[in-house]
Amino acid sequence: MIRCDELTKYFNGTRALKKCSFEITEPTLTGVIGVNGAGKTTLFKSLAGFLKPTGGSAFVFNEPAFQNINVAQNVMLIEEGMQFYPKTSLYELIDSYQRFYKSYDVTLAQGLLNYFNLPGDAHYNQLSKGMASTFRLILALAARAPITLLDEPTTGMDPSVRKDVYELILKDYIKSPRMILISSHYLGEMEKILDQILLIDEGRVLEHGALEEFQHLFVAIKGSPELITPIEEKLHVFEGKDFGPGIRQIVVKREEFKNLHLWDEVKESITVNSISPEDSFIYLTRRKGGGIHELYDS
Amino acid sequence: MNSTIHNESQMEIALKQTKDKLINNSGAFLYLILMQMVGYFFAFNAGMSGGGTDEVFVSVRSISAIPLHVLTIAWILVMALNLAGEKSREYYLVSNNFTAYFSDIALIEIYSVIGGLTLVFAGPFLQVLGSLFFDNVHLHSDFGDVGIGNQLILFLISTVYLLMFGAAAYAFGILRTRFNLRFILGTIGTIAVLIAGSIIALRIGGPQLNFDPESLVGFYLFEHRPVIWLGKVVLTVAGLYGISYLGIRNLEVNE
């Protein structure tokens, strides 16, 4: 069980997390989505017990996470900046990890090393960026920790390997269901494997729920400007663009559009489409000041 | 949930961590050998005098074990600073500040014992090495004609001094890791205050006021009462470990 109650973290006066609250109680594959600097890594490090909250709390298995040995032995965190002993081979690193994580699956780790053509006797520092990411992922999945935190696990990987990696995460999750949290800013490529989305922006949780809910958050309404403009005036428009002189499209929140009760009047003249979770993520986290279109059209 | 939740004690994890650090820092013993080889080299070249006639030339060379001791101390200083500085690796394995601290201390103690043991054999080893190059080798009375009891005391003293240096370096390293720039600024500030204080004290107290740095070393080295000496070193080591623990207690891992 993971629970954050108004978790807040500052680094030398700079806010990384601000009153971040959410709870995960069941085994799920959760995508932690946010732009660079949203607070994803800080959240993961807080859950792993590396960081002391400035305010609020992070609980894992109903215990405060910071420097808690019961939490540490049941949480596996990987991230790009993690460090290893420089003169240790990949085989030796796997051996080290299996001494600490009691459910460690060495056979799986070695099988995956072979599958991804990683030289077991090489040192971690000798690996390319993509290979190092693959190795960290292998370490994490084979640990079989009840809570697995994968911070940007596909950094530097080729597109073909990334596809393989997401399949691997899904397979592993099906075989050994547990709480797996994957952070990324590329929602599009991993949405197929996720159960839940935790959207973080500027250190706060913007949305947390099933992927389907996220898919239905926004709608794109397309029609003639005479029909679209009145809607535009009543709702908060996340994006608006013209497709030639007679067609305009706006993106609004589905709930807000439904509350206008206009559907019966205009259904013959406009088209309403769902938008992808990736686009929903972009609209939710976009900075103020309008989109690129407004910048060029003004 | 299919994954099993584990609850090993802190002590079990700390012992595993000690073993892991020993394996991953096994190069430390190679560095010790290398440092001591350099120490032996300097020991042989410490000083020489000679003289005689055309037929007979007598060479007298004094071989000193001091370079060996100095380099062994340098070795433990580097090892302890290393342990204090590389704090983030172990946390990605299973760790918390207590287990990290415990395993570091255990490793410093192991290093001190190994270092102490090698220094006990330095005297006889120097004699054997000397006899390879010289006709007559006489060992200094500090090394010659000593029984097993003296060897044991020599071992104990070497180990405890290494431990003290190791603990001091570790405390320094932990404070540096914990407080980063503030520690460096604090150190510079302290030095500045000490210098300024000395100048002011000298102006007020006059030239008769003097500080002898040897008295600081003498506090330990010239203490001939065994129990008092032991008390001094144990308290010093405990104090240094205490400072290290306070430094590491709420340390965050964020590199």
Average of the residue pLDDT scores of chain B = 85
Radius of gyration computed on alpha carbons of chain A: 22 Å
Spans of chain B with pLDDT under 50 lasting ≥5 residues?
none
Q: Which structural category do the helix and sheet elements of chain A fall into? A: alpha/beta
Helix-strand pattern of chain A? EEEHEEHEHHHEHEHEEHEHEEHHEHH
Strand content of the residues of chain A, in percent? 25-35%
Q: SSE order of chain B in H/E notation?
A: HHEEHHHHHHH
List the total number of helices of chain B.
9
Q: Provide a count of the helices of chain A.
A: 13
Q: How far apart lie the N and C ends of chain B?
A: 32 Å
The portion of residues forming beta strands of chain B comes to under 5%
For the biggest sheet of chain A, the summary is: 6 strands, mixed
Helix content of chain A: 25-40%
Provide the residue-averaged pLDDT of chain A.
89
By DSSP, the count of extended strands of chain A is 14
Number of strands of chain B: 2
For the biggest sheet of chain B, the summary is: 2 strands, antiparallel
Oligomer classification: heterodimer
Q: What low-confidence regions of chain A span 5 or more consecutive residues with pLDDT below 50?
A: none
Shape of chain B: globular
Helix content of chain B: over 70%
Give your account of this protein's structure.
- The complex is a heterodimer of chains A (298) and B (255).
- With 298 residues, chain A is of the alpha/beta class.
- Chain A is 37% helix and 28% strand.
- Chain A has 13 helices and 14 strands.
- In chain A, the strands form 3 sheets. A 6-stranded mixed β-sheet of chain A has the order 6-7-8-3-9-10, with helices on both faces. Chain A has a 4-stranded antiparallel β-sheet with strand order 2-1-4-5, covered by helices on one side. Chain A has a 4-stranded antiparallel β-sheet with strand order 12-13-11-14.
- In chain A, strand 9 and strand 10 form a beta hairpin.
- The longest helix of chain A is centred in the middle third of the chain and has 17 residues, at 159-175.
- Chain A is elongated and about 70 Å long.
- In chain B, helix 2 packs antiparallel against helix 3, helix 3 runs antiparallel to helix 5 (97-120) and helix 3 packs across helix 7 (148-205).
- Chain B is built from 9 helices and 2 strands; from the N terminus they run ααββααααααα.
- Chains A and B meet through helix 2 and helix 3 of A and helix 1, helix 4 and helix 5 of B.
